Amino acid sequence: MRQVRLNFLVIAVSLASACGGPEESGEIPQRSNPAVASPTTTEPHGGATGSLPRVVMLGTSLTEGLGLPDSQAQAWPALIADMADSAGYAVEVVNAGVSGDTSAGGLRRLDWLLQNPVALMIVELGANDGLRGLPVAQMEANLDSILARTAARYPEARLAVVPMEAPRNLGQRYVDEFSSVFPRVAERHGALLLTFILDGIAGVPDLNQSDGIHPTIAGHQIMARTIWPGIEPVLSEIGGGSQ
Fold first, then answer.
1. Active site residue 211
2. Residue 120 · residue 52 · CB < 8 Å
3. Average pLDDT along the chain, 243 residues, taken 10 residues at a time
4. Active site residue 61
5. Known catalytic residue: 242?
6. Which of 101, 179, 214, 220 is the catalytic position?
7. Catalytic residue among 61, 71, 99, 179
Protein backbone atom coordinates (compact mmCIF):
# COMPACT_ATOMS: atom_id res chain seq x y z
CA MET A 1 0.00 0.00 0.00
CA ARG A 2 1.36 3.38 -0.92
CA GLN A 3 1.81 6.24 1.50
CA VAL A 4 -0.85 8.92 1.89
CA ARG A 5 -0.28 11.93 4.11
CA LEU A 6 -3.16 14.09 5.38
CA ASN A 7 -2.41 17.63 6.47
CA PHE A 8 -4.98 19.75 8.27
CA LEU A 9 -4.21 23.44 7.94
CA VAL A 10 -5.18 25.45 11.02
CA ILE A 11 -6.18 28.84 9.65
CA ALA A 12 -6.84 31.85 11.91
CA VAL A 13 -10.15 33.25 10.79
CA SER A 14 -9.51 36.17 13.13
CA LEU A 15 -6.70 37.32 10.85
CA ALA A 16 -8.87 39.39 8.56
CA SER A 17 -6.03 40.26 6.24
CA ALA A 18 -5.53 36.59 5.42
CA CYS A 19 -8.98 35.08 5.52
CA GLY A 20 -11.58 37.78 5.93
CA GLY A 21 -13.49 38.58 9.10
CA PRO A 22 -16.98 37.56 10.19
CA GLU A 23 -18.51 40.51 8.39
CA GLU A 24 -17.37 38.97 5.10
CA SER A 25 -18.04 35.35 5.92
CA GLY A 26 -21.61 35.15 4.65
CA GLU A 27 -22.14 32.16 6.90
CA ILE A 28 -24.40 32.29 9.93
CA PRO A 29 -22.13 31.69 12.95
CA GLN A 30 -22.27 28.08 14.07
CA ARG A 31 -20.64 26.11 16.86
CA SER A 32 -17.05 27.08 17.35
CA ASN A 33 -14.42 24.70 16.02
CA PRO A 34 -11.19 24.95 18.07
CA ALA A 35 -9.10 24.06 15.03
CA VAL A 36 -10.32 27.16 13.23
CA ALA A 37 -10.74 29.49 16.19
CA SER A 38 -7.04 29.24 17.04
CA PRO A 39 -5.28 32.62 16.78
CA THR A 40 -2.31 31.06 15.03
CA THR A 41 -1.71 29.74 11.58
CA THR A 42 0.33 26.58 11.31
CA GLU A 43 2.12 25.09 8.34
CA PRO A 44 1.46 21.51 7.26
CA HIS A 45 2.93 19.00 9.68
CA GLY A 46 6.68 18.91 9.26
CA GLY A 47 6.78 22.23 7.41
CA ALA A 48 7.43 22.01 3.68
CA THR A 49 6.02 19.01 1.94
CA GLY A 50 8.12 16.07 0.91
CA SER A 51 8.04 14.15 -2.34
CA LEU A 52 4.34 13.24 -2.36
CA PRO A 53 2.09 15.04 -4.88
CA ARG A 54 0.08 17.64 -2.98
CA VAL A 55 -3.72 17.70 -3.24
CA VAL A 56 -5.10 20.97 -1.83
CA MET A 57 -8.79 21.20 -0.95
CA LEU A 58 -9.58 24.92 -0.77
CA GLY A 59 -12.99 25.39 0.75
CA THR A 60 -15.43 26.40 3.45
CA SER A 61 -16.78 24.78 6.61
CA LEU A 62 -18.06 21.98 4.38
CA THR A 63 -14.45 21.04 3.70
CA GLU A 64 -13.12 21.93 7.13
CA GLY A 65 -15.66 19.65 8.80
CA LEU A 66 -17.25 22.17 11.14
CA GLY A 67 -19.08 20.57 14.06
CA LEU A 68 -17.66 17.07 13.66
CA PRO A 69 -16.19 15.46 16.80
CA ASP A 70 -12.87 14.89 14.99
CA SER A 71 -12.78 16.86 11.76
CA GLN A 72 -9.19 15.85 11.04
CA ALA A 73 -10.33 12.24 10.69
CA GLN A 74 -14.02 12.54 9.79
CA ALA A 75 -14.28 15.39 7.25
CA TRP A 76 -14.50 14.37 3.60
CA PRO A 77 -10.87 15.36 2.77
CA ALA A 78 -9.64 12.88 5.39
CA LEU A 79 -11.94 10.23 3.97
CA ILE A 80 -10.61 10.93 0.47
CA ALA A 81 -7.10 10.45 1.87
CA ASP A 82 -8.17 7.09 3.30
CA MET A 83 -9.71 6.08 -0.01
CA ALA A 84 -6.56 7.10 -1.88
CA ASP A 85 -4.48 5.07 0.54
CA SER A 86 -6.68 2.03 0.05
CA ALA A 87 -6.41 2.43 -3.71
CA GLY A 88 -2.63 2.62 -3.48
CA TYR A 89 -2.18 6.25 -4.53
CA ALA A 90 0.76 8.16 -3.06
CA VAL A 91 -0.53 11.67 -2.39
CA GLU A 92 -0.58 14.29 0.34
CA VAL A 93 -4.07 15.62 1.05
CA VAL A 94 -4.27 19.14 2.48
CA ASN A 95 -7.53 20.22 4.14
CA ALA A 96 -7.62 23.97 3.51
CA GLY A 97 -11.23 24.51 4.52
CA VAL A 98 -12.12 27.59 6.58
CA SER A 99 -15.51 28.12 8.16
CA GLY A 100 -17.36 31.10 6.72
CA ASP A 101 -14.99 31.65 3.83
CA THR A 102 -16.29 33.33 0.71
CA SER A 103 -14.66 33.09 -2.71
CA ALA A 104 -12.90 36.36 -1.87
CA GLY A 105 -11.53 34.88 1.35
CA GLY A 106 -10.23 31.84 -0.50
CA LEU A 107 -8.50 34.08 -3.01
CA ARG A 108 -6.86 36.14 -0.27
CA ARG A 109 -5.19 33.11 1.30
CA LEU A 110 -4.27 31.44 -1.97
CA ASP A 111 -0.68 32.71 -2.08
CA TRP A 112 0.01 31.10 1.30
CA LEU A 113 -1.32 27.79 0.02
CA LEU A 114 0.79 28.04 -3.13
CA GLN A 115 4.04 28.30 -1.21
CA ASN A 116 4.42 24.55 -1.69
CA PRO A 117 3.86 22.71 -4.99
CA VAL A 118 0.31 21.72 -5.92
CA ALA A 119 -0.50 18.67 -8.04
CA LEU A 120 -4.29 18.99 -7.73
CA MET A 121 -6.29 22.00 -6.56
CA ILE A 122 -9.91 21.26 -5.61
CA VAL A 123 -11.95 24.45 -5.11
CA GLU A 124 -15.06 24.20 -2.93
CA LEU A 125 -16.09 27.85 -2.60
CA GLY A 126 -19.23 29.85 -3.27
CA ALA A 127 -21.71 28.54 -0.72
CA ASN A 128 -21.18 31.52 1.57
CA ASP A 129 -21.32 33.93 -1.37
CA GLY A 130 -24.76 32.49 -2.08
CA LEU A 131 -25.89 32.67 1.54
CA ARG A 132 -25.08 36.38 1.54
CA GLY A 133 -26.49 36.99 -1.90
CA LEU A 134 -23.18 38.44 -3.06
CA PRO A 135 -22.86 39.49 -6.71
CA VAL A 136 -22.45 36.48 -8.97
CA ALA A 137 -19.97 38.33 -11.19
CA GLN A 138 -17.77 38.97 -8.17
CA MET A 139 -17.76 35.28 -7.24
CA GLU A 140 -16.95 34.30 -10.81
CA ALA A 141 -14.02 36.72 -10.93
CA ASN A 142 -12.66 35.33 -7.66
CA LEU A 143 -12.90 31.72 -8.83
CA ASP A 144 -11.27 32.71 -12.13
CA SER A 145 -8.37 34.28 -10.23
CA ILE A 146 -7.90 31.25 -7.98
CA LEU A 147 -7.67 28.85 -10.91
CA ALA A 148 -5.59 31.16 -13.09
CA ARG A 149 -3.07 31.94 -10.36
CA THR A 150 -2.72 28.29 -9.41
CA ALA A 151 -2.09 27.34 -13.03
CA ALA A 152 0.37 30.19 -13.50
CA ARG A 153 2.35 29.14 -10.45
CA TYR A 154 2.20 25.41 -11.19
CA PRO A 155 1.46 24.84 -14.91
CA GLU A 156 1.30 21.07 -14.47
CA ALA A 157 -1.26 21.26 -11.66
CA ARG A 158 -4.66 19.71 -12.26
CA LEU A 159 -7.69 21.81 -11.33
CA ALA A 160 -11.14 20.81 -10.09
CA VAL A 161 -14.24 22.83 -9.21
CA VAL A 162 -16.99 21.74 -6.82
CA PRO A 163 -20.27 23.37 -7.97
CA MET A 164 -22.52 24.90 -5.36
CA GLU A 165 -26.14 26.00 -5.33
CA ALA A 166 -27.69 29.24 -4.06
CA PRO A 167 -30.65 29.39 -1.65
CA ARG A 168 -33.97 29.35 -3.48
CA ASN A 169 -35.28 32.33 -1.54
CA LEU A 170 -32.91 34.61 -3.47
CA GLY A 171 -35.05 34.23 -6.56
CA GLN A 172 -34.84 32.01 -9.62
CA ARG A 173 -32.78 34.49 -11.63
CA TYR A 174 -30.05 34.67 -9.00
CA VAL A 175 -30.14 30.89 -8.51
CA ASP A 176 -29.73 30.27 -12.24
CA GLU A 177 -26.95 32.83 -12.65
CA PHE A 178 -25.17 31.44 -9.61
CA SER A 179 -25.31 27.83 -10.82
CA SER A 180 -24.07 28.76 -14.29
CA VAL A 181 -20.79 30.13 -12.93
CA PHE A 182 -19.22 26.81 -12.00
CA PRO A 183 -19.37 24.98 -15.34
CA ARG A 184 -18.34 28.18 -17.12
CA VAL A 185 -15.30 28.72 -14.90
CA ALA A 186 -14.31 25.06 -15.10
CA GLU A 187 -14.47 25.06 -18.89
CA ARG A 188 -12.52 28.30 -19.14
CA HIS A 189 -9.61 26.89 -17.16
CA GLY A 190 -9.73 23.28 -18.29
CA ALA A 191 -10.74 22.19 -14.80
CA LEU A 192 -12.73 19.15 -13.79
CA LEU A 193 -16.32 19.97 -12.91
CA LEU A 194 -17.20 17.71 -10.02
CA THR A 195 -20.61 16.72 -8.66
CA PHE A 196 -22.55 18.95 -6.26
CA ILE A 197 -21.05 17.84 -2.97
CA LEU A 198 -24.31 18.01 -1.01
CA ASP A 199 -26.22 15.89 -3.50
CA GLY A 200 -28.44 13.57 -1.48
CA ILE A 201 -27.52 15.38 1.76
CA ALA A 202 -29.00 18.89 1.61
CA GLY A 203 -32.38 18.97 3.30
CA VAL A 204 -32.05 15.49 4.81
CA PRO A 205 -32.28 15.91 8.62
CA ASP A 206 -30.49 12.66 9.49
CA LEU A 207 -27.48 13.67 7.41
CA ASN A 208 -27.14 17.19 8.82
CA GLN A 209 -26.29 18.58 12.22
CA SER A 210 -28.83 20.49 14.28
CA ASP A 211 -28.12 23.71 12.35
CA GLY A 212 -29.51 22.07 9.23
CA ILE A 213 -26.48 23.27 7.23
CA HIS A 214 -23.43 21.23 8.14
CA PRO A 215 -23.32 17.50 7.38
CA THR A 216 -22.92 14.84 10.03
CA ILE A 217 -20.27 12.12 9.99
CA ALA A 218 -22.56 10.07 7.76
CA GLY A 219 -23.05 13.11 5.54
CA HIS A 220 -19.31 13.52 5.09
CA GLN A 221 -19.03 9.88 4.15
CA ILE A 222 -21.52 10.49 1.35
CA MET A 223 -19.65 13.64 0.32
CA ALA A 224 -16.43 11.66 -0.05
CA ARG A 225 -18.16 8.98 -2.13
CA THR A 226 -19.71 11.73 -4.28
CA ILE A 227 -16.38 13.43 -4.99
CA TRP A 228 -14.26 10.30 -5.37
CA PRO A 229 -15.30 9.18 -8.90
CA GLY A 230 -14.42 12.61 -10.31
CA ILE A 231 -10.94 12.85 -8.83
CA GLU A 232 -9.91 9.19 -8.66
CA PRO A 233 -8.49 9.15 -12.22
CA VAL A 234 -6.38 12.21 -11.40
CA LEU A 235 -5.15 10.69 -8.15
CA SER A 236 -4.20 7.58 -10.09
CA GLU A 237 -2.23 9.71 -12.53
CA ILE A 238 -0.42 11.93 -10.04
CA GLY A 239 -0.09 9.30 -7.31
CA GLY A 240 1.87 6.77 -9.31
CA GLY A 241 -0.94 4.41 -10.25
CA SER A 242 -2.77 1.76 -8.29
CA GLN A 243 -1.29 -1.39 -6.80
1. yes
2. no
3. 53 32 38 31 37 96 97 97 96 97 98 97 98 97 98 98 95 97 98 96 95 96 97 94 48
4. yes
5. no
6. 214
7. 61
